[in-house]
Every structure is written in C-alpha cells, then in structure tokens.
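Bug #2210: token dump truncated for enoyl-CoA hydratase?
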Amino acid sequence: MLQLVRHGEEGSVVELALDRPGSLNAISTAFAEEITAATARLAADPTVRAVVVTSTGDRAFCVGADLKERNGFTDAQMMDHRLTTRLAYRGVLDLPVPAIAAVEGFALGGGMEIALSCDLVVAGEDATVGLPEVGVGVIPGGGGTQLLTRRVGWSRAASMIFTAARLSAAEGAALGVLDEVVPAGTARERALEIAARIAANSPVAVRNAKKAMRLGMGTDLASGLEIEDACWRATAFSGDRREGVAAFAEKRTPNWPGR
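Reproduced locally. Full output below:
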C-alpha cells in the first residue's frame, strides 16, 4: 500500500507514494501502520535529504479516514485505531528532512493532515482540499486543528474547520493552505524538482535549519533565537561547513560529507 522510490544520482530524494487506489488512499489501520514504519525508516536513513509524498492515482491524494472500517469499531477498537493513526501523522511531521506533499485530486480530512504535516504543499489545479470532519461528528485529529491554524491563522482555519469547507486549489492557495498550484497532473514533477534543489544543499545545514524552525515556532522570540544559535553551532563546526567554504573558494560544486 506504500511505494518508496529513490530519485537522483545518490538516491537522496525519496518519494513516498500512497498506493491504495481502490479506496482513494483512505487511511485504514494497516495503512497507518505502513506509513509509520516507512517514515521511521526514512528518518533513520542519513542518506535521505528530502521526501516527496505523492499518490499513485490521480483521483485522490488521500480522502482521509477509512470510514467503512471505522463503522464497525467498538469504542475500544476506536481508541486503538486512534493511537495507531496518531503515530502515522507524527511520522510524517517528525521527518528530520524537508517533506513536500504533491497533491492531485482530493486531499480531505486525514489526507489533508498528511499534506499539512509536510513542510511544503504543491497541488494540481484540479485538487480539492479540506478538513470536513465536523460534518461526520468528529474533529481533525491528525494535527489539523494545530497545523492549519499555524499555517493560515486563527480566523481562516476556523472558517475552514467549522464549516467543513472543501476548497478548490485556487481557493486553498489564496488562503495560504497550499504553497504552489501547478497544472493538473504535474504536482509530483514540481515537488520532485523542489526536492532536488533542496538535496543539492548541505544536508547538515538543511536538517538543522528545519530543526531550528520547528522547535522555535512555538516559543517566544528570545527562546527561538537561542534554539537557532544551538542549531547554528551544530552546523558551523561540521564537515559540511568546511566543505562548503572550500568549494566556494575553489569555485566548484560542493561534495557534502553530510556530517
């Protein structure tokens, strides 16, 4: 139900393709477990420099929870499922390298939350996005209430979530939900282009930049600057910094040691 494909000469860009087309990539218990396992492998692999999350079908990136499976759950099974799916969303969110979602078709509920767990979201112009959970008696539980609010602000997030709105790609981009809208069918290609540009930079610097941004986002400015300083120090005395300066002086492409 998942495909991992490496791109680039060194395979430093990894495509994580959601592959459950018969259910439009609805997140079942087994599917959530696969996402958790895959993201754990990616997080532990020092050769990975960027991750692109895609779908093998063009009808949907992911339509969210597998409601057919949930319909038969007892309360105890529902809670077990909840713990399993939380790990899947956190697996994407906690990737130490930049993650880019390439959205085609529907990205709704948990599917939208997978996209929001990425650092950047690229969508085809025919995409439809939203967090419609209140319409079926629950709330976004994969980080949506927190990630969307941080991304677009309180009032815009409140409007989307409280009304269970479904937005076109153009509407999503206008609100800041999406970072880039491209011609339908080209989101994956564009996301891989961005990932390749990321992968060309120092892996130590990129990882530490993401760490500083993520850790500092929820703190006051003074605390955030201390986090930034710690991440700067971890980067400035690395092999990557020495190689970057040498390559600049010698007018050549850096050969990053990645340590």
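Output looks complete on our side. Residues 132 and 138 are 9 Å apart (CA to CA). Marking as cannot-reproduce; reopen if the truncation happens again.
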